[in-house]
Amino acid sequence: MLTKQASPAEIRQQCRLQNHTGNTSGLAAGYVQANMVILPKTDAADFLQFCQLNPKPCPLVAMSSQPGDTGIISAAVDLDIRTDLPSYRIFRHGELVAEQTDIRGLWQDDLVTFLLGCSFSFEEALIADGLEIRNITEQVNVPMYRTSIRCQPAGKFSGPMVVSMRPMTPANAIRAIQICSRFPQVHGAPIHFGDPSAIGISDINQPDFGDAVSIKPGEVPVFWACGVTPQLAIAEAKPDFCITHTPGCMLVTDIPNSKLALF
Amino acid sequence: MLTKQASPAEIRQQCRLQNHTGNTSGLAAGYVQANMVILPKTDAADFLQFCQLNPKPCPLVAMSSQPGDTGIISAAVDLDIRTDLPSYRIFRHGELVAEQTDIRGLWQDDLVTFLLGCSFSFEEALIADGLEIRNITEQVNVPMYRTSIRCQPAGKFSGPMVVSMRPMTPANAIRAIQICSRFPQVHGAPIHFGDPSAIGISDINQPDFGDAVSIKPGEVPVFWACGVTPQLAIAEAKPDFCITHTPGCMLVTDIPNSKLALF
Asked: Could you give the CA distance from residue A75 to residue A31 in angstroms, rounded to a whole number?
């Protein structure tokens, strides 16, 4: 059994042994957890440019040095990207074809791995400052919405920006903007607050992904760019082959959250 | 005639010669302009604590080292605080009794000078980033409002926080929060945005000080703590004797705005 005190290396080891195959939320407090995207080299250059052009929804924390590499030393010692996540999703031509706990049998020498920052890091920083995160209080998934904001396209990758929403009082939203601004590699500052329709959200109580949360009197919805954005771009691009993490089942890295702080 | 290119020292010299007796807005671009408060030593300790307890409306940039000092070397070389502002207001027992361009005849050995940051500095930083400041576009004074937020009292000094308001889109407000957070000595980040009634403002179109500005569709009012706050606290405290700058007629210091940036 993994505890909250388990180190990132222990967690990866338990994933590798297939003893842990589920959600990583709350594990290895203080360490960066990453969204993962694996693409063949033929699509990787475009995807890298997509991340570069859209750093708020697609903040690149690390990537493999060479196609075929199964380790990323800047993210984790002894990493085997093929085994060290709890669960993987396999896509062919944009279709989800399998969900499995080990991808060694699918590995190819042309595969490039991308690690993208995730909101767990900034939620931890907000909670440490005493702010309430409604989706955590209400024990549901954060509500996420497609917006009318278009990402900058790169090759075959394009699509709408997806945002996550956390309700806050204006004073807490100002504090959250300050804190999150220090962490551009985990989505950074919010991109909007207030009127949902200004970014193309027609009903705040009907998220496109995740669960609705209550918005109390005096609070405004605050919107962050969300890591589901690259997943939608990949779904629309339909690359021949793609592997991602299973939602919520992230790569736990050795990078302390504080190392991502600008200052 | 003073030009925009005039140095802070030239401006102070022209004030000393009584050639410049008016507004300092737009002069000496890039340098901190300061609100000034002069109080007898008997009241100065309480006022200093009031500033310490309420740093957002009363951000202390510098103060005289010893009672009676007429210079503040950390703010300006060769400063004579008795002559180097364009215009002064004299208060006795809380009543405005005179407005004059030189206070040498009123100087006492027990007077302590406080210099407080002003919004000119952060407005400059916002404009440099491409943001529009509505009161500047519309060529009026910034609208200011008494709020229901009480300052932390210190001795005889207490009162409501006064705020200034600048309308912005949410995206621009987020950027403004980031920029202003770097400058705590010139009021720092906004303290509120959105619903005026949440901070006790009943009619956004009826400011208590300054002029109303237009709020366009898609914009929200953004509120900053304002340097009128200590003026109200002094008016309510009714110290036997007090000298301030005349509104808009600030001390132009030698401190570059960028020197006040936290990072």
From this structure: 11
Tokens of B262: 């936290």
B19-71 pLDDT, tens digit each = 999 999 889 999 999 999 999 999 999 999 999 999 999 999 999 999 999 99
Contacts of A258 (CB under 8 A, 6+ apart): A30
B chain contacts of residue A193, beta-carbon cutoff 8 Å: 170, 173-174, 193
Strand order in the sheet with B160-168: B144-150, B160-168, B220-225, B192-193
| Domain boundaries along the sequence of chain B | 8-118+236-260, 120-230
CB contact under 8 A, A194 and B170: yes
**Tokens 């209400």 label which residue?**
A138
pLDDT at A1 over 70: no
pLDDT single digits (tens) A98-121? 999 999 999 999 999 999 999 999
**Span between the terminal Cα atoms of chain B, in Å:** 36
Give A144's strand partners.
Answer: A164, A209
CATH topology (fold) of B120-230? PSTPO5379-like fold (3.30.2040)
Q: Does any CB of chain B come closer than 8 Å to the CB of residue A194?
A: yes
- Report the pLDDT value the prediction gives residue B3, as an integer from 0 to 100: 73
Mean pLDDT of A187-198: 98
User: What is the phi/psi pair of residue A87, to 5°?
Assistant: -160, 145
User: In the predicted model, what is the mean pLDDT of residues B128-149?
Assistant: 96
How far apart are the C-alpha atoms of B96 and B103, rounded to whole Å?
Answer: 14
Phi and psi torsions of A166, nearest 5°: -130, 120
Look at the domain B8-118+236-260 and name its fold: PSTPO5379-like (3.40.1640)
Tell me which residue in B174, B191, B192 faces A177 most closely, judged by beta carbons: B174
Judge whether residue A173 has pLDDT over 90.
yes
pLDDT at residue A4 tops 90:
no
- CA atoms of B121 and B188, how far apart (whole Å): 10
Q: What is the ipTM score, two decimals?
A: 0.90
Domain A8-118+238-258 has what CATH class? alpha beta
